[in-house]
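PROTEIN DATA CARD
Card holder: DNA-binding response regulator
Chain length: 233
Origin: Caldovatus sediminis
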Amino acid sequence: MPHTIALVDDDRNILTSVSMTLEQEGFQVRTYTDGESALQGLLARPVDLAVLDIKMPRMDGMELLQRLRQRSAVPVIFLTSKDEEVDELMGLRLGADDYITKPFSQRLLLERIRALLRRNEVSRAEGSGAPPGGVITRGDLVLDESKHTCTWKGQPIQLTVTEFLLVKALALRPGMVKNRDQLIDAAYGENIYVDDRTIDSHVKRVRKKFRQADPDFSQIETLYGIGYRYKEG
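Structure generated from the sequence above:
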């Protein structure tokens, strides 16, 4: 079955050209020109991945992403302009898995889409570091790779693909420090460049999600200037 990609952008030229490229590469594509229709469409007919622009009529990309994350963990690539650094960080904090700055090459977008789809598939498969069954248990934390689920003290924690892979990378080696480069490789794969603040934004969002379930959550520790680790015990 070919993967289905949603493109959400009010620029019809972008929708047309990117759709043609993706369809030539074997993807099915659904397009939306505003956030409101995109939200209705994505919730009614889920896709494998969504590419969201920021500035759109009726509902901008920020609100769309925020409302989408209340109901769905679909992988999301966020489109932002070079002068919209604040929007990049806000998009990541709202739950985007990746972002690309405009103007972008369609080849780069295609590579990022494929990489994110691979990460999604890998996160659902049994990992080489996981016990039989693909379930990782660390005290009150349970990660089920085959189902792509996470629970803390029995409460479900909805994580995006990137967030799931970050938590997995830390939980597999409790007590060991992971620097940002190692976490980038774990969450994005090798040869994909993202800067350090991207990892920091993802970690902040992960902590927020766990603390909504348990205000005393403190398992993910920051070692300033070094990286992060999952606290043993």
